Amino acid sequence: MNSKIYAIMKKEMLHIIRDPRSLFMAIGMPVIFIILFGYAINMDIDNVKIIVCDHDKTAKSREYVSGFVASGYFKIIKYTDRENDLVLSLDKGETKAGILIPVGFSDKLSRNKQAKIQVLVDGADTNSTNIAVGYVRGLSFLYTAKLTVEALNKNGMAKIRQTPGIESNIKIFYNREMKSRNFIIPGLIAVIMSVIMGILTSLTIVREKEKGTFEQLIVTPIKPYEVMIGKIIPYWVLGMFDMLLVVLVGTLVFGVPLTGNLFLLFFMTGIFAFSGLGVGLVVSTLANTQQVANQVAMLISFLPVFILSGFMFPIKSMPVLIQAVTVIVPAKYFLLVLRGVFLKGSGLFALLFEFFVLSVFGFLFMLLAAKKFKKKLK
Q1: CA distances from 304 to 60, 67, 273, 285 (A)
Q2: Domain made up of 48-154: CATH architecture
Q3: Which of 359, 373, 365, 347 is nearest to 287 (CA)?
Q4: What is residue 337's predicted lDDT score, i.e. its pLDDT?
Q5: Where are the domains of the chain?
Q6: CB atoms closer than 10 angstroms to residue 363
Q7: d(CA 251, CA 263)
Q8: Model confidence over 286-342: pLDDT tens digits?
Q9: What's the rounded Cα separation, in Å, for the pair 175 and 185?
Q10: Residue 57, Cβ neighbours under 10 Å: how many?
Q11: How far is CA 127 from CA 33, 86, 132, 288, 366, in A?
Q12: Across the strands, what pairs with 303?
């Protein structure tokens, strides 16, 4: 390695080691992200708390309600005789749904008439609400089919054991248990890499300006590209370390499957890192203070990857104009790589397009950083 680049790299590494804020950002933030996203954010819906008001109090009404408990998706926390308790429990946030079974429920079913129930659902959380409503409809349909079979058998059609219908044999690939952690934690690598690369690198040049050491670099025979390379290498290494940390915690602690090639994951992560490094260097050369650089880097590195990359929100559900904007977000393509390698076991051939796009982004951002970086004072 060039001795000048090595000197700059060693100097930058000492900056990181001696700066508690940089160390926390590099090591502490990934750990916090893993804990928050791994434990706190859970999109899986189960044990939905419900309250039941059964005015009918018959064998059929109790049988219908027992189907909710047996499904494993619902947990009945209270039975009541007052309808107002349903609304009150929703207001207090004690339950997510309330089921009201009117008088005559069993009688109408016995006379082959349509029996109606009322389901009150907390719509504040639309995701949970939509899933819970789907569960209620599915359980009601299954109970109706069961009653239909019983009615047919009662009328002398003893050979009928089930109603005619279509049975869907569903086979889920890649994430068979449908765990949200398997979807979120791989994408967390993109978030951490973008933040670490963007924010930390954005402080490199502007720190020299604030401390007055930039003048020392100017009078040295070091070329601008040597300064730039020497400064980005430590952060590239830090980013790869953070990636390894997330992979180890994700696979060993949270049980996220890594079905693909680990070396391919490192290779693609290393390419993606150059995009963040380039953005950080551009910000650092343009900003005059570390505070400004930190705020700008956070704005252009964290928010796009969190909102516009498909990490938390599906891109196809966004307006067409916003979808067009996501095309220039490198993390969008890196997320496809991460989830492809982790869950699908995708190889390089399947990820050639993403490899090409990430390489282009990395080259363009580093080229822009080299153009903006000049070894002279304004």
Answers
A1: 53, 44, 15, 21
A2: 3-Layer(aba) Sandwich (3.40)
A3: 373
A4: 92
A5: 3-41+179-372, 48-154
A6: 14
A7: 16
A8: 777 777 877 888 888 778 888 888 887 788 878 889 888 889 889 899 999 998 898
A9: 13
A10: 12
A11: 23, 21, 9, 44, 40
A12: none
Describe the strand order of the beta sheet including 74-80 as a list of residue ranges: 74-80, 48-54, 97-101, 118-121
Closest CA to 195 of 336, 305, 326, 355: 305
- What was the pLDDT predicted at 166? 42
The span from the CA of 194 to the CA of 280, in Å, is 10
The span from the CA of 160 to the CA of 183, in Å, is 43
Q: How far is CA 89 from the centre of its chain?
A: 31
Positive or negative CA dihedral for 307, 313, 319, 324? positive
Average pLDDT score over residue span 356-367: 89
Tokens of 67: 């189907």
Contacts of 27 by beta carbon, 8 Å cutoff, 6+ apart: 242, 245
Distance (Å, whole) CA 112 – CA 284: 75
The pair of structure tokens assigned to 294 is: 């930190």
**CA 302 to centroid of chain Cα atoms:** 13
